[in-house]
């Protein structure tokens, strides 16, 4: 049987699964500590003495913003629960809406491991061992970003 993102990561061999768990842990902690925070600041061109405008103090991670804008009613709390299930290896098989978020995050993690990504201003290379498991040719011959 061939694994795909609709199946739980426990279906993967332990030597490959650990990379999915590590990335889920990273994403979970990063999402938990980086959230949208909007504050009020004095307006640059005030119309009255108490005129304020909204300004972003802290932002959600780029990958979360992309997921949020790509799906209607995408929720942070369900994202954190799905990532927690993945890192604890308790994620489930995607059927209709049950474990939908697990599948979304398995796909994100899978893409990050297979293609690499830009994270916090750094280019993170694809994972050679995961690519090898899935029979994907050498990284040098692939445009992974």
Secondary structure: elements and pairs:
Blueprint: H1 14-33, E1 37-42, E2 52-58, H2 62-70, H3 76-87, H4 100-115, E3 117-119, E4 122-124, H5 128-133
Antiparallel strand pairs: 1-2, 3-4
Helix pairs in contact: 1-3, 1-4, 3-4
Q: Can you give a write-up of this model?
A:
This protein has one domain. It is 43% helix and 13% strand. The chain has five helices and four strands; from the N terminus they run αββαααββα. Strands 1-2 form a two-stranded antiparallel sheet. It has a two-stranded antiparallel ribbon with strand order 3-4. The longest helix is centred in the N-terminal third of the chain and has 20 residues.
Number of helices: 5
Mean pLDDT: 90
- Tell me the domain tally: 1
% residues in beta strands: 5-15%
Ranges with pLDDT <50 over ≥5 residues? 141-145
Helix content: 40-55%
In one word, what is the shape?
elongated
Distance between the termini: 28 Å
User: In this structure, how is the largest beta sheet organized?
Assistant: 2 strands, antiparallel
Q: Which class of secondary structure composition applies to the elements? A: alpha+beta
Radius of gyration: 19 Å
Spell out the helices and strands N to C: HEEHHHEEH
Q: How are the strands ordered across the major sheet?
A: 1-2
Write down the oligomeric state: single chain
Number of separate strands: 4
């Amino acid at each position: 049987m061939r694994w795909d993102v609709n199946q739980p990561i426990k279906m993967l061999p332990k030597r490959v699964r650990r990379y999915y768990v590590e990335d889920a842990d990273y994403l979970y902690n990063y999402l938990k500590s980086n959230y949208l925070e909007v504050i009020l600041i004095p307006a640059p061109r005030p119309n009255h003495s108490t005129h304020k405008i909204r300004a972003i103090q802290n932002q959600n991670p780029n990958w979360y913003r992309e997921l949020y804008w790509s799906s209607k009613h995408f929720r942070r709390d369900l994202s954190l629960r799905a990532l927690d299930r993945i890192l604890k290896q308790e994620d489930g098989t995607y059927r209709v809406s049950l474990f939908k978020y697990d599948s979304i995050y398995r796909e994100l993690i899978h893409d990050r491991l297979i293609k690499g990504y830009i994270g916090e201003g750094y280019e993170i290379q694809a994972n050679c061992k995961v690519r090898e498991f899935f029979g994907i040719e050498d990284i040098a011959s692939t445009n992974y970003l």
